[in-house]
Amino acid sequence: MDLQTLTYLIVGSTFALYIGIAVWARASSTGEFYVAGKGVHPVANGMATAADWMSAASFISMAGLIAFNGYDASVYLMGWTGGYVLLAMLLAPYLRKFGKFTVPEFIGERYYSQAARIVAVVCLIVASITYVIGQMKGVGVAFGRFLEVDFSTGVMVGMGIVFVYAVLGGMKGITYTQIAQYCVLIFAYTVPAIFISLHLTGNPLPQLGLGSTMADGSGTYMLDKLDQVLVELGFAEYTAQKGTSFNMILLTLSLMIGTAGLPHVIIRFFTVPKVKDARSSAGWALVFIAILYTTAPAVGSMARLNLTETIQTGPVGDANANLVYENRPQWFKNWEKTGLLAFEDKNGDGRIQYYNDQNAEFNTKADAWGWKGNEMTKVDRDIMVLANPEIAGLPNWVIALVAAGGLAAALSTAAGLLLAISSAISHDLLKGVFMPQISEKNELMAGRVAMGGAILVAGYLGMNPPGFAAQVVALAFGLAASSIFPALMMGIFYKKMNRAGAVAGMLAGLLSTLIYIFVYKGWFFMPGTNNLPNTADNWLFGIQPESIGAVGALINFAVAFAVAKFTTEPPEHIQHLVEDIRVPKGAGAASGH
Questions:
Q1: What is the pLDDT of residues 443-460, one digit of tens each?
Q2: CB 324 within 8 A of CB 249
Q3: In CATH terms, is domain 3-303+390-479 a member of 3.90.650.10?
Q4: What is the predicted pLDDT for the residue at 160?
Q5: Predicted structure pTM score
Q6: Which of 101, 521, 518, 54 shows the shortest CA–CA distance to 296?
């Protein structure tokens, strides 16, 4: 069966499954719409949480970043997984014990302030909208290639699918849909990785294949082979550190505390029956996430090796060895149609020259060989995972499966984010602030309308993304890290933090981070534009925009503590509330305290 037919069958079947689950588990009350009735089993919630969090950035884009950034991209692995440890230990059980529907509701009650709740809603919406842009980019990439439609059409199709099952099912429908999506995405990610690892190294486990020797009998380790191939083309060694340690530390920290402050992940821990189930859910989520995250480094490195050797064959400098453009493989032609892979014959020899034309020493050699610059003018990082099975020549059913997995990853996270935005608008703003007497039926309808509006906004911005999916998501993590995480931490562990300090801290952290992002990625109101060159030479102290969230968090903490010191302490009942959140019932009974 041809690839196009297989893709429609497999992707169409998964969409039918998601919509069927949403119809079966549709929400009939606000409790089911916001927190699935608080009746989800910890293992099921762990699997749904993994799907909710492993977005298009994890499935599609992370391995692409690893493929082109090598060692430096390890920060994404450390930051995103490390954040779950913080979430499990420091936030999830305490927030579940508080027993509310949303993060802004906790902040509003903890800081005894409607203003704090409104500011929290603003922070949540800014971070979540930025995050969902990355998912829409991933949807557009997957649809654009495998359903052979342009990028914008792909985004609109994805918007329609999410609208149907997320608006209908709410958290209850999304939870069970995400369990199905996890099964699809993890199967789709690991199966081709096993095939490729077996082909390149003879080892069926990608995690072990990454450190194995090549299957060609040369005795060369796979990573050594990749280093050698890249160096011959003027690129830096794959395993070498290229960025500064300071920036890597800040990016890792930003991703970690951003993970712990993501509102759409936090609300998943409100869906379990008991407090201890919240911590158990986080542990199960880590187990399910680890399957993909330990596979990603192998996928990225093997994809880069396959791509480079396919385009640039033979020894460097042998003009006859370069791939003849007219003889390019079918996968190359397929991805050219999407606009995410582009070639320009700069010297008119009809061959593809692929090398690092930013390397001055190598460029001199290239000039002597008659090359006029790197002719691969565009290789979008987000195509690497989706194109990898095609480049490796795997069967069509594997390629179609990867398409279904990429869409599952993007749609599962998009649904969770849109629900977080919807609940913030309908429950926190409408019900909590402006219309407290609204009926449950009308609140449920308002939530669905809000979700529809959020989908339209996310779709528009998704068609004009500021970077690769993982880069956009990193910005969202930075916004969550600088605004929501400090407010939650101080709300749980510092009983004397008052409303003035919390509000000032959230605003200071959010605004400082947004301003820095806008300066170097001035795309929000004018997509595709930049105010300053987004390069290390122009960054303040060498801090890239994706890393600024950690600095924003420090600003948040500093401003909050300073303002709290010179303003009135929280009421006594609020301080007791904070202690009750942290201390289990019955604590001290054995000792008589």
A1: 778 878 888 888 888 777
A2: no
A3: no
A4: 79
A5: 0.79
A6: 54
Count the helix, strand and coil residues of the chain and give each as a percent rounded to the nearest 5. Answer: 75, 0, 25
Tens digit of each residue's pLDDT (9 = 90 or more) over 392-446:
888 888 888 888 888 888 777 777 788 788 888 887 788 877 888 888 788 778 8
Contacts of 224 (CB under 8 A, 6+ apart): none
pLDDT in tens, 369-383: 777 788 888 888 878
Residue 571 is given by DSSP the state P
Terminal CA-CA length for the chain: 73
SS3 81: helix
SS3 for 184-196 is: HHHHHHHHHHHHH
Give per-residue pLDDT as tens, 470-528: 556 677 788 889 999 999 999 999 999 999 999 999 999 999 988 887 777 654 444 44
State both tokens at 40: 């989800």
Element of type H or E holding 343: strand 341-343
Find, among 268, 90, 284, 85, the residue nearest to 172 by Cα. Answer: 268
- The answer to whether residues 147 and 11 touch, using CB atoms and an 8 Å cutoff, is yes
- For the chain, the domains span 3-303+390-479, 310-377
CA atoms lying within 13 Å on the CB side of residue 281:
34
For the chain, what's the residue count? 593
DSSP character for 28?
A: -
What secondary structure does DSSP assign to 518-544, as a single string? HHH-TTSSSTT--SS--STTTSGGG--
What's the token pair of residue 381?
A: 């990082």
Strand partners, 324: 351
